[in-house]
Amino acid sequence: MKVLVIEDEKELADSIGAYLSGENYRCEFAASFPEAIDKIFGYDYDCILLDLMLPGGDGIRLLEEIKANNKQEGVIIISARNSVDDKIKGLHLGADDYLAKPFHLPELAARIYSVIRRKHFGNTNTIRQHELSIDLLSRTLTVNDQEVILTRKEFDLLLFFISNKNRVVSKSALAEHLSGEMADMFDNYDFVYAHIKNLKKKLTEAGYGNYLKTLYGSGYKWDV
């Protein structure tokens, strides 16, 4: 899952990134208002952590831009502003959560998980689809009651497909999901093909219902 950290305090941003990486999140960073605008409208994220006091502009304006453009990312405000009025304003404008600084990183991670679970997975810790069962907390998959061992990227791919079920997912969207902004620098999608091939092989060997379809020229679709 991809998280955009909009935070101008480098030490705090680095701490957040290091902790969330250990929790299996891919983090990208923006340290100013203009940089945040470029990231928000150049890429898709599962959750945005939004500081309010940024060089070049107010984070509240960013939140208004996100909502005005119907961006679907979850937004958690992280701010030293801790008045009730600030929290109410942020939540009324469309933030999913508000966490005042200073905060504990495990609590931040739990709130991110909660936002993503609610937006993508029907607010449940266990996704069940026919013969598949996915435990989001333990990051484990069983097919026909047998555990299937996936790599981190294969598990992330599976969640990405399921969170976009019955939609066509382009190769470029998959590349961005797996590698973030680095995907712009790749000459081809060979690494995407390799991860999908491995994921599909493991699912097929476990006896899943062949939900992952290849749409030549378009991308892939988790068809259920």
Automatic annotation (TrEMBL):
Pfam families per UniProt: Response_reg, Trans_reg_C
Keyword field: DNA-binding, Phosphoprotein, Transcription, Transcription regulation, Two-component regulatory system
InterPro entries xref list: CheY-like_superfamily, OmpR/PhoB-type_DNA-bd, Sig_transdc_resp-reg_receiver, WalR-like, WH-like_DNA-bd_sf
PROSITE patterns, A to Z: OMPR_PHOB, RESPONSE_REGULATORY
One GO BP annotation of this record: regulation of DNA-templated transcription
CDD domains with a match to the protein in the record: trans_reg_C
Residues in the DNA-binding region annotation: 124-224
Gene3D superfamilies for the chain: 3.40.50.2300, 6.10.250.690, Winged helix-like DNA-binding domain superfamily/Winged helix DNA-binding domain (1.10.10.10)
Ranges for domain OmpR/PhoB-type: 124-224
GO molecular function: phosphorelay response regulator activity; transcription cis-regulatory region binding
GO cellular component annotations of the record: cytosol; protein-DNA complex
Transmembrane segments: none
Annotated ranges, domain Response regulatory: 2-116
Modified residues (4-aspartylphosphate): 51
Protein name according to UniProt: Response regulator transcription factor
Species for this entry: Candidatus Pseudobacter hemicellulosilyticus
